[in-house]
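Bench notes, bay 3.
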Amino acid sequence: MEMTRYDHLSRADQFLGLPAPNLEKPVPEDGRFISLPNPAEISTPPLELRCAIESRRSVRQYSRDPLKLQELAYLLWCTQGIVQRREPYATFRIVPSAGGRHAFETYLMVNRVSDLEPGLYRYLAFSHRLMPIEIGPELTDRLMEACLRQSLVMGSAVTFIWSCVVYRMAWRYSERAYRLVHLDAGHVCQNLYLAAEQLRCGTCAIGAFDDELMAGLLGIDGLEEFVIYCATVGKKLH
């Protein structure tokens, strides 16, 4: 924290004339992609904002009912949906981010979502699609191990895993980026909580995880890109 004070910051690469990094990680040209329902065409139950805020709780036990693909698409849109692009410098999304830099990538560990095989996926916000990373129900065991044996990841319909590509933020804010990305994580997860309430789902944020195991699960280096936050989602028992 001390070294992220303004007195200690180095000059940001943006002001040194270096090019901006991409606002989304590249995808393989021959990858498999799953188109998601258009957010504008997804019908959701009405819920007053104050009611959603007052009823929000962390829920750790879920029913066995699956999430619908439309519901998952809505949750993804509410947490990282893009409403305006100003590439390569910024995107304006459903959630705020310092300078519009949006340093996160969203991964999903799917257990029970209609029309999706259990496994690990990545959300592509720019095209509102999913890309399968690895398919297989046994991956949830690895996630539970990485989350320090917290069983709620086994019972959830899906676990959101947000990684941070920190240079996206550091390009503009140098070392201060390490403060800002944690603020952004709070914005994203709170939106997930509130949107899940609208769908009569429960959510539980997870900050306790083994960083190296999480990086290995996602196939990232854990330094330039590291897991910053997780959250389980599932249908409520009552």
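Next record in the batch:
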Amino acid sequence: MQYLPIFADLNAKSVLLVGGGHVALRKARTLLQAGAALSVVAKEFAPEFVQWQQQQQVKLIGAEFSPELLAGHWLVIAATDDDDLNALVHQAATAQQIWVNTVDDQSKCEFIFPSIIDRSPILIAISSGGKAPVLVRRLREKLETILPQHLGPLASLVGKFRRKVQEKLHNFAERRQFYERVFNSEVVSLLQTEQADAAASKLEAMLEGHEPSQGEVFVVGAGPGDPELLTLKALQCMQQADVIVYDYLVSEPILALVRRDAELICVGKKAGAHSVQQEHTNQLLVDLALAGKKVCRLKGGDPFIFGRGAEEIEALLPHAIKFQVVPGITAAAGCAAYAGIPLTHRDHAQTVQIVTGHCQKDGKEPDWHSLSRPQQTLVIYMGLMKSAHIQQQLLQAGRAASTPVAILENGTRPEQRVVTGTLAELAELISQHQIQSPALLVIGEVVSLQQQLAWYGAHSSPTVFAQPIAQLN
């Protein structure tokens, strides 16, 4: 982050603007809107400056700039077409530790002016650090069209009730949840139709009738890793939650989208490493919900496809804890699509089987003959450690050694890697390319389409291709 966004209170604070032309006028309008006590120094002034002086909105100083004029000012803006003069203003201001902005010269700026969307008291500032002003303008145009005008009145209304809310609701999480209900209530629609008094009465009634919130658990699928694959419902639950209980498979870019003040608790499991027992995770969800928390149980992929979501919900039922289930894009669908592998194709595969590489608790083996049928796609989760056993059993059950296979490492993420080969090479491919978890095994004739389809989709699929062993030797 090159610049720290700060909203400065300039009301009645002295600001010096150096320059009296059209460039200076643009900055002056913004500063006056912020309530600054503006002084302008220049040899000549645009007519608007003279009008503002007559209205006692600005103080005009008809003189050349000198460092003595900086005394007592909080900010200074150099807005002339004279590079030498702008450099002098910058040098003098920094020597006195006064923040300075030099128009159209980023190297001489201690702060910059962002593009502003004004729904006072709601303000949205957008900046590219001076690198892409046209892109910033386009973003502002889009946001202006989707942000309703009633945002300002809504913020003002809840601001008037803020002290009352604090006096009645002493817990921060309880206050936040109350405001969430307000923003989803009739209060908003009343303000949209300019019924401010009715909106205030409705808010007052909601506060008087407020009852403590009950705990709730959102069991949410985060998808395979790409944050753009999150569903809208998933993002909403992540933003509402007081606590995020997440797995190792949830990517950092997705975790960055949760509320900043939410508590983060990792309960991930890794093969061969110490991890949180499932029973402890179940009890944690129960304890947090009974404490009145809104809990987002965030899982990689889909919570009901090898995600143990059902087990966790079963733990909530005896306590009558409310819950929601939000499906996510499972790795089989997401990773295969990003790698250019269709799971079904009328010429290659009419069925799909999705299985786990881990044996059941009692050690019972899967039906390998069923998994070995031709013209079928087999997707194996968590299959790295037992890849040699999987390969052997499929071959013994009749699957052809030449059956195409793909190993998808970090699917849908920027570091995604795709290694292809044949079933006869599966375990050796994983060893030679040092494949690490998370990874998915895809076995079947559809893999033969991978390079063709992934090449055409390369602009949307972050794929790195690794040659199979047969091509390396």
